[in-house]
Specification:
7 helices, binds flavin mononucleotide, 13% strand, six-stranded parallel sheet
Length: 228
């Protein structure tokens, strides 16, 4: 649109130059003002066009097609079952393998104790020892990674999991359950640990609504275009 307007202004200018003698000084002044206003409009439209193209490219990155023979792993950590519920729903739709991240030492049942422990773990950069390992991580192209939002990010066992393997070149698809903070800082924190992975748009589901989240989950999977 901006380019068309630029072309039009160019032709208009040429016409003015060719017919300079038939315009009086006053109307020439008015013409100059019109050209100036049109130029500003064209520059603005061109800028908007470029901006739209950039954001469209971003959307495409998020939603690049992955259908076909890509191997999928749905991995998750869950203390009280909410994230497990979402992981199972995702797995039912996308197929592939499912893997539960489990610390050697389970978290206590008491909420306040876990909250205090999780804060300490986060502050100290602690990485929980994990009970089991994924066999052949290299064979997966797409890794879903699910976790409860703890203190605005993922819990220590997820940090250990992300640090245990080389996810370079793989697609990582984050999802979380939470009680108000959504994905928080977790996506940025995953990028820090896996800078050579391709991040896809994440999903955040409120913990108290996981049983009725099926439509949201399938809508998101359709949106990110992960399967045919
Ligand atoms: C240690 C801890 C910290 C939490 N921090 C947050 C938080 O910062 N923001 C939030 O929205 N929910 C927070 N929650 C709530 C959980 O994210 C939510 O209950 C989640 O659904 C639990 O998932 P799970 O059943 O898979 O363990 C926290 C819960 C715990 C135990």
């Amino acid at each position: 649109m901006g380019e068309v307007l630029y072309d039009f202004i160019g032709i208009f200018k040429q016409y003015l130059l060719a017919n300079e003698n038939i315009f009086n000084e006053r109307s020439k002044e008015d013409m100059k003002k019109t050209i100036f206003a049109l130029s500003i409009t064209a520059a603005f439209l061109a800028f908007m066009g470029v901006t739209a193209q950039i954001s469209f490219a971003g959307e495409e990155l998020n939603m690049s097609k992955l259908s076909g023979n890509k191997r999928i792993l749905v991995s998750y950590f869950s203390r009280t079952g909410n994230t497990r519920e979402i992981a199972n729903q995702i797995h039912e739709i996308v197929g592939g393998d499912i893997f539960e991240i489990q610390p050697v030492k389970p978290y206590p049942d008491d909420y306040d104790t876990v909250v205090a422990q999780a804060r300490k773990e986060l502050d100290s950069g602690y990485m929980a020892e994990l009970k089991t390992k994924v066999q052949n991580i290299e064979s997966y192209d797409v890794v879903f990674i699910g976790y409860p939002n703890w203190w605005g990010t993922f819990p220590s066992p997820v940090k250990s999991f992300l640090s245990s393997y080389d996810f370079s070149g793989k697609v990582i698809v984050p999802f979380c359950t939470h009680e108000g903070s959504g994905l928080g800082n977790s996506v940025g924190d995953i990028v820090k640990l896996c800078p050579k992975s391709k991040m896809f748009k994440g999903l955040a589901i409120r913990g108290s609504t996981v049983k009725t989240a099926r439509n949201k989950v399938s809508e998101w999977i359709r949106e990110i275009n992960i399967i045919k």
